[in-house]
Amino acid sequence: MSPIIRFDRVSVTVHEKTILSDVSFALLPGEKAVLCGKSGSGKSSVLKTLLGLHPIKSGTVYFQQQPLTPASVQTVRSCTAYIGQEPMLAAESVREALLLPFQFKAHRDHRPTESRLIEVLQRLQLPVSILSRQSSRISGGEKQRIALARGLLLGKKLYLLDEVTSALDAESKQAVFDVFSDPELTVLSVTHDPEWVERCTIIFELEAGRLT
């Protein structure tokens, strides 16, 4: 089996400051990996580099065995769900936020049914009534789970997660753990949550932009 993600001696410099230095690792489909380290160690920068948000100074990032280039980065983004600590839902209501991607040509033929919407919400311990609520009036933890629900509805297989359990209570956190126990989903995450770390099969330790 070939890696879905591979960093080969990747260094990244932003505003003349080196934020990643000679980073190498690989992640196979279905693996659950977590990036650990102190604040400022470069954890989130790994995710942003994969998404093409940071220019690579040296080395190569491979996605599905293809080198990351300005042209190929769109392929990465189309296959990936990135969920940060405060996701942007980009719609007035939760229902509109969930259905927003299905307005575009690429997903128009895969618009989910009402029963599918409800099923995904229930998996994530979200009430059906949340569909009619304003996006501006839901909590950070609810926003994270709505963003995750949108990824599931789109059939995303790769998830880049940045402190995705930080605003969740125990029951909601367990629901998220259960979703990502799916062997078909590949996860590269950033967290300080020891419960999340325990459930990951691979732990990458970062210190000052280097994998230790």
Automatic annotation (TrEMBL):
Q: Which SUPFAM superfamilies match?
A: P-loop containing nucleoside triphosphate hydrolases
**Could you tell me which PROSITE patterns the record lists for this protein?**
ABC_TRANSPORTER_1, ABC_TRANSPORTER_2
Q: Where is the ABC transporter domain?
A: 5-212
Q: Which GO terms describe its molecular function?
A: ATP binding; ATP hydrolysis activity
Which keywords accompany this UniProt record? ATP-binding, Nucleotide-binding
Question: Signal sequence: where?
Answer: none
The name under which this protein is listed is Putative ABC transport system ATP-binding protein
